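Subject: for your reference before the review

Hello V.,

The reviewers asked for a structural picture of the protein, and I figured it would be easier to keep everything in one thread rather than splitting it across files. Below is the amino acid sequence we used in the manuscript, unchanged from the supplementary table.
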Amino acid sequence: MPLKIEIATPDDAPSLAALHIATAQHLTSIHGPGPWSRNVTERGVLFAQRQASVYVLRSRKQVVATLTIGTRKPWAIDRKYFTKCNRPLYLTSMAVAPDWQRQGLGRLCITEAMKIARQWPADAIFLDAYDAEASAGEFYRKCGFREVGRVSYRNTPLIYFEMLL
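And here is what came back from the structure prediction:
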């Protein structure tokens, strides 16, 4: 299966919105409704592309995974929990299409995020995950991220993770 990661373009917005919606619906079908159940619009995807670097992982021409990396601190991140550093990047909106999960694509996305961060250059990757059964927290631990805190933001329990580069 030939896989290619690249920067998303505005033409990818419909595919990215559909990917996020499919992932949210999949998590909701397994874990019930929660903050992961939100829908993403094409307009929301285009906004994300203006705020950060959105990447897509393609198999042939189909978008099968995505991640967003940026220098702008997401609203739910409180820097006091993280190691002090000069150039952190924030990993957000990572998703793998339900039919493609458990095939190593998530780990491939993390590997690519680390390569991108080193080339940026950045000295850390920070992220948050839901503190719930629908969380990817255990996945991030297995990929080498370290838990640095637990908080509740707008009544949503979160776990903060970091990887120093």
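For the response letter, the relevant points are probably these. Helices lie at 13-31, 42-51, 105-119, 137-142. The chain has one domain: 3-164.

Happy to draft the paragraph if you're swamped.

O.
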